[in-house]
Backbone:
């Protein structure tokens, strides 16, 4: 028990004095992950570390966002998540409910790693740069990027408001996945 | 164990206009399944193994469609037009699964069986005890990843019983057999590959010691097939593809289709551009019927892929049609294509109800199909000749069938084009009727059809094929058809080719139908389970279930000698995924088009799977 508490304290403050007692199985010391951990949960042991502030390099970039939109169709994200992100086989990306988080680094790992209940793992199949464009576009579907950068028109049947006019998702209060 | 009762319900009432395939012999009581020799001890072929005898026993319900003729008719009459008002709940069972419950319970001897949507748990309930406690459960633990390639919710349409064993499929592509008495696994055969976009959602059929299983995945560019497995050990006996060279489709010298357009060498290649047949769909996710006299198996093939028709000029054989095959060898006898070069995702997989009808002066052995394309077909099941094809719902996308050539008459202005939105096409992609199976009463001679009233806007788009991801190429938005109601429940006279009566429903009627003597049962997406008079359509009883009903109702006689009606509630399925997967209808294409039509379903019902068993005898 004492050892466990010591280990926890070690994680929280990275106190060098605990080194002797540390039991490393396979992981790196927690401190090494401090700024790079992609967390899928708000819950952390000990005192929470700040969330990473990683952002997609395309979040404010109209060209990157429209590339994201093109790739969303070309890689058949649209087939699983709805042409305008309303969901189909996969969950809606337009609402404010996220299973695996809506931060850029969380979205990046979702798209790259895949997720167990049917999200394919695109990592290694498409370039990272394109994943970052997709991340920015997914955020725009939920109204999370600046409106002047978000794409504004559909080339195809208009079946939803354009990304730069999407309203606040919190207005829809129906059910959960 | 003894039979509960002599289950030979009098069938003298079966009337003049129609005679009925599965009601031939009343002389033998059904075999007592629980005291049968274990399946491993004797061969599965021959009369002993013929599940058709069991299917004739109205006390039991051993396959989803009740019998090989797929009538979903029982002559049990304790629950009647007179007393159905008093019908109440005998017991319930929560499946704990919140996806769409499209499967029916089965009853064999004193046990009820139910297979859930993914995770496809198979339950056995002991009907001899109060509240029907679980006797055993079998958990196949299907991969979660399979859910990503299931186009239309993670449904399962049921198990089937034959010869002491149960057979069912898992979403991740396995066919499984377990011992009906113990739940012990007999065999598992991996058939479908999720990395190619294949899943399995259909209920198998067992005929003469073979289990028939088809794949799903028509929205993923898979190549459709029907596979026959040995019921004894699960080994593959044959596989018939729906596209490609004749040798893969099992087309040989005995193939004699009725129409010229189905004759020629390797049409499964030549009616496609290039290699498109390899990703051409034609999956087999619907229903199979069997005629023991003709020894022919009947089933349909689904839509060609992708939906965008401009990417696949040609008739796209052998998709969107129906095959008659020998169950032993799989060789094809005839084929008929309901939608050559399908333009609208009009799969040809709906159930084929077999009956002998008095038509044009003579008795005809027919099969009946209420197709996605809006036409009710009556087809000579020996030859594949279309006897009649009449619209049973609003249709503006075809003008019926040219009875000389057998070909669907197209309406050019409703044909989708890439990059152009064609508006108000009726019926919509889910068709005038989707998978939801109709019932047929030999007493009234009527078909009872649960169905849709939907139109759509359709734009073809370039689809890129990436294995394991959707291959659709269409932007579609559904909407209510004329009148504003999105569903119908129709009693249809197949000889007169017109409706006898019709009930409007607000939502598409996505449940199956059941005829229990003079009563017809069906469920609605807002959760009403209804009993109506088979003759008049008058509503006699309804019960509000906890969630929308899209399951297949069935009837049985309990060990206590009383009749029961059972149905699983649990919203979901292709349209119900709006609720069960919490889609966002602000995108009208959500759920592949349902966002436009069913946004209000979210305020009409919530998800949750529950089995309901009803009785007029007070229950136990």
Residues:
């Amino acid at each position: 028990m004492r050892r466990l508490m010591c280990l926890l304290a070690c994680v929280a403050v990275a106190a060098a004095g605990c080194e002797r007692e540390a039991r490393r199985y396979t992981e790196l010391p927690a401190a090494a992950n401090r700024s790079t951990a992609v967390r899928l949960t708000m819950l952390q042991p000990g005192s929470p570390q700040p969330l990473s502030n990683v952002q997609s390099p395309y979040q404010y970039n109209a060209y990157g966002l429209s590339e994201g939109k093109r790739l969303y169709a070309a890689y058949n994200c649209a087939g699983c998540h709805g042409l305008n992100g309303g969901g189909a086989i996969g969950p809606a990306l337009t609402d404010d409910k996220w299973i695996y988080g809506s931060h850029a680094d969380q979205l990046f790992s979702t798209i790259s790693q895949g997720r167990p209940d049917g999200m394919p793992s695109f990592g290694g199949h498409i370039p990272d740069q394109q994943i970052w464009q997709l991340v920015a576009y997914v955020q725009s579907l939920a109204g999370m990027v600046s409106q002047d950068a978000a794409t504004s028109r559909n080339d195809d049947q208009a079946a939803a408001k354009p990304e730069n006019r999407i309203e606040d998702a919190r207005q829809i209060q129906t059910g959960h996945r | 164990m003894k039979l509960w009762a002599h289950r030979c319900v009098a069938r003298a009432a079966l009337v003049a206009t129609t005679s009925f395939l599965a009601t031939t012999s009343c002389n033998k009581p059904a075999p007592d399944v629980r005291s049968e020799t274990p399946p491993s001890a004797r061969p599965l072929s021959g009369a002993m193994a013929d599940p058709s005898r069991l299917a004739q026993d109205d006390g039991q319900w051993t396959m989803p469609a009740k019998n090989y003729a797929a009538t979903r008719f029982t002559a049990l009459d304790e629950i009647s037009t007179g007393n159905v008002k008093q019908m109440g709940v005998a017991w319930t069972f929560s499946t704990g699964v919140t996806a769409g419950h499209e499967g029916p319970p089965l009853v064999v001897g004193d046990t009820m069986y139910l297979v859930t949507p993914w995770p496809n748990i198979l339950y056995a309930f002991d009907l001899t005890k109060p509240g029907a406690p679980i006797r055993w459960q079998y958990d196949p633990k299907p991969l979660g990843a399979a859910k990503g390639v299931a186009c239309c919710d993670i449904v399962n349409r049921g198990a089937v019983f034959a010869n002491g064993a149960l057979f069912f499929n898992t979403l991740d592509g396995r066919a499984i057999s377990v011992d009906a008495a113990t739940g012990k696994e007999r065999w598992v055969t991996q058939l479908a590959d999720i990395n190619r976009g294949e899943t399995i959602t259909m209920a198998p059929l067992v005929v003469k010691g073979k289990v028939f299983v088809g794949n799903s995945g028509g929205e993923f560019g898979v190549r459709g097939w029907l596979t026959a497995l040995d019921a004894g050990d699960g080994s593959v006996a044959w596989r018939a593809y729906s596209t490609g060279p004749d040798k893969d489709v099992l087309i040989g010298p005995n193939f004699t289709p009725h129409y010229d357009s189905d004759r020629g060498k390797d049409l499964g290649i030549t009616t496609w551009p290039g290699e498109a047949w390899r990703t051409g769909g034609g999956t087999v996710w619907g229903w199979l019927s069997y005629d023991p006299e003709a020894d022919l198996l009947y089933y349909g093939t689904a839509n060609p892929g992708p939906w965008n028709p401009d990417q696949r000029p040609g008739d796209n054989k052998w998709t969107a049609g129906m095959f008659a095959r020998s169950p032993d060898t799989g060789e094809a006898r005839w084929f008929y294509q309901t939608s050559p070069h399908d333009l609208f995702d009009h799969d040809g997989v709906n159930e084929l109800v077999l009956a002998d009808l008095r038509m044009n002066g003579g008795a005809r052995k027919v099969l009946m199909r209420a197709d996605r394309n809006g036409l009710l077909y009556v087809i000579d099941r020996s030859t594949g000749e279309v006897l009649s094809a009449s619209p049973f719902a609003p249709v503006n996308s075809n003008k019926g069938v040219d009875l000389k050539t057998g070909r669907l008459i197209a309406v050019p202005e409703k044909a989708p084009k890439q990059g152009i939105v064609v508006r108000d096409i009726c019926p919509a992609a889910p068709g005038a009727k989707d998978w939801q199976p109709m019932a047929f009463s030999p007493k009234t001679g009527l078909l009872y059809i649960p169905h849709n009233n939907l139109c759509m806007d359709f734009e073809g788009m370039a689809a890129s094929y990436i294995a394991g991801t959707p291959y659709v190429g269409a932007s579609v938005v559904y909407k209510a058809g004329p009148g504003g109601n999105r569903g119908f429940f129709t009693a249809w006279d197949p000889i007169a080719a017109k409706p006898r009566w019709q009930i409007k429903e607000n939502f598409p009627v996505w449940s199956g139908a059941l005829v229990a003597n003079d009563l017809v049962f069906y469920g609605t997406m807002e959760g009403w389970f209804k009993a109506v008079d088979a003759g008049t359509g008058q509503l006699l009883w309804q019960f509000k279930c906890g969630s929308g009903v899209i399951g297949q109702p069935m009837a049985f006689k309990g060990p206590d000698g009383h009749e029961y009606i059972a149905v699983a509630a649990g919203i979901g399925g292709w349209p119900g995924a709006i609720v069960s997967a919490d889609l966002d209808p602000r995108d009208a294409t959500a759920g592949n088009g349902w966002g436009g039509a069913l946004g209000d379903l979210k305020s009409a019902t919530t998800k949750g799977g529950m089995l309901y068993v009803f009785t007029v005898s007070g229950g136990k």
